[in-house]
Design brief:
single chain, 184 residues, mainly beta, five-stranded mixed sheet, 3 helices, 14 strands
Length: 184
């Protein structure tokens, strides 16, 4: 299993617009089914000329993904596992892009192997994970959010293989046990 990650050419995030959207951003993070009548709006400082070269964009909620990404996984991901919702990206000059989908993951599963992982839990129950290992066979679907840290989207080998075969751009995978910490 792997943690799904993204890479974009410059350091930026596409930010869920709390004022415009009629849904709560936490519904995305908490794996709720979304009934959106309008495209979900995200904002960014500028829409780059090269945005269409990417198949996943960095967000703080659910990833924004391309049509190519959506088409690669529609047959693998069941309707109870994820939704692909229309989105519109606006920049500060009013330019817009509506070629990406919000990839709303609907499964949240406890997956942190607490015996092998290195982590701390604060007084509010928030996990700070320094080195993550996953419960073997804990992921029964191809993709889910990790209950212990909902920003972690965990995928199976088949998901990774399809990304590589489709040559999806901007998609990265973090192997379990990987850490940026040197003092462990």
């Amino acid at each position: 299993m792997y943690r799904l990650s993204d890479f974009y050419k410059r350091d930026t995030y596409f930010v869920f617009n709390n004022e415009y959207n009629l849904i709560d951003r936490f519904d995305l993070i908490n794996s709720k089914i979304i009934e959106a009548k309008e495209p979900i709006r995200f904002d960014v400082d500028k829409i780059d000329d090269y945005i269409s070269e990417y198949d996943i964009l960095p967000t703080f909620t659910s990833p924004l993904v391309s049509t190519k990404f959506k088409n690669t996984f529609e047959d693998l991901i069941g309707k109870n596992d994820a939704q692909f919702l229309s989105s519109t990206i606006f920049d500060e000059k009013g330019n817009k892009n509506d070629s990406f989908y919000v990839f709303n993951i609907l499964k949240t599963i406890p997956m942190l192997d607490k015996e092998r992982s290195i982590y701390e839990v604060d007084e509010d129950g928030f996990y700070s994970i320094k080195k993550a290992y996953f419960i073997p066979d804990g992921l029964k679907t191809s993709i889910a959010r990790m209950e212990e840290h909902k920003s972690y989207i965990i995928v199976k080998e088949e998901f990774k293989r399809r990304c590589e075969e489709a040559n999806l751009k901007g998609v990265n995978f973090i192997e379990e046990g990987h850490t940026i910490y040197t003092d462990l």
